[in-house]
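User: Can you help me understand a structure? I only have the sequence.
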Amino acid sequence: MSTLVGMQLSGRYRLDAQIGAGGMSTVYLAMDQTLERRVAIKLMHREIASDSDQLERFRREARAVAQLSHPHIVGVIDAGEDESRPYIVFEYVEGETLKDRIRRMGRLPMDEAIAYAIEIARALGGAHQRQIVHRDVKPQNVLIDPEGSAKVTDFGIARTLDEDGLTADGRVLGTTDYVSPEQALGRDVSGQSDIYSLGVVLFEMLTGDVPFHGENQVSVAMKHVREDMPDLQSRRPEASATLASVLDRMTDKDLRRRYTDVPSLVADLEEALAIEAARSGHSTGEATAVLRTLPATARRRLPFRMRHHLPVLGVVLLLAAAAATVAFLAKEGVDRTQRGTGQGPIEPPAGERVVSVASASANDYDPAGDGEEHPERTQLVVDRDPGTTWITESYSSGLAGANKEGVGIYVDARPGVEAVRMEIQSPEQGWQAEIFGASGNRVPDGIDAGWERLGGGVVRDEEQRFKLAAAGETYRYYLVWITELPETSQRVEIAEIALLQRASTR
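Assistant: Let's start by predicting it. Here is the structure, written out as tokens:
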């Protein structure tokens, strides 16, 4: 065992055990004695630290990963140097690597393999949005946490697309089992190289083996350049044609035919996962969690019970509640064309109730563009069905790239209501929402032309609630104004928008 075990770095981090080693550094399980938590520390070898280029690569890793905040990327906590030993402190992920999982299980269940590919792709998409290419995507660099979720780590050879490379021309970086053809030839790499490597990882998850073998790393690398990938369906006959087509496009040697960006890849992988789950009628492992994050367009392929996960008792109770609601509406003579949505499955906090609005009360809002954001789908945010969604247009360069401060969707709560809270249900998280209110009989023409800000923030949960600063005011229109897209998507999906008012309000 390393003699460094037991030492303290910077008087704070106690090295408890060695858990990995490489040519540049050694990874230790350590204790952060200030915050009393376990962390992982990558400590650069002292002899390597004397090489200015290698030292700069190590420091660059810390800078690059510190920019990334994503649920499927192992986060950087700290960085420093101790007696000429540079180190990086990462969150500690207890579990196994994806490589270990493949070795232990052989080929993975179809839906689980696709689910992990989706999570890894979403992580890479977050990095690519910040112009960071991983350049060494392999199952050894994917950790599976105790909950079964994938986290990408080891951006040790990552570099930003807008900085000069620090390696000599023609030098191949990366593990050749997963290296892209252009990287094997020493050419410039982009996010498409990560997509190729992820395709090889997906192939290995599905078949239990890498596609190429050779006498040495160079021979394997040249097979990635010259030889066709083995046919997936010949090794895994139950694989769908859709999945095989996605894999072929991920690993196409011609960059013109390979996926050009991660969002388009993720969309196709999500479709493949939904098809696979629908064919088998069930889900396994991490696929169960990923299925819940699929957009409505993919989720519609799933059987009802997989889309809604309602137990039999829940169905009975919902039917009973529906019957009671019908009886109540008949008795009270409620005009359902104006107050038609009801509470649905939304559970309001104590002392509050869901405002029932007209079934056609939602409208898209795009004052700085063509005035349309999928108007044909707007009613889906008030249909009280979390399996249906309204979506914005796709913005490949973000809203700023389209010269827009935002786009949105509003609910007409005619004749008006004093809402104290809004619930937004969305299958994706990490986007920014500002909530505005407006009175009168006319929707303001622009965000600064009569809207009053009531609240908002980042949508971090599938069911995100925002408190509204209504201050006793009644508003007819309530606008969800989207100002920032998720890091891993070019658009926003919203399943439901619900207004909540005090239960005593009539």
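Now, to help you interpret it: DSSP finds 15 helices and 22 strands in the chain. The chain has three domains: 8-91, 96-302, 340-502. Let me know which part you'd like to focus on.
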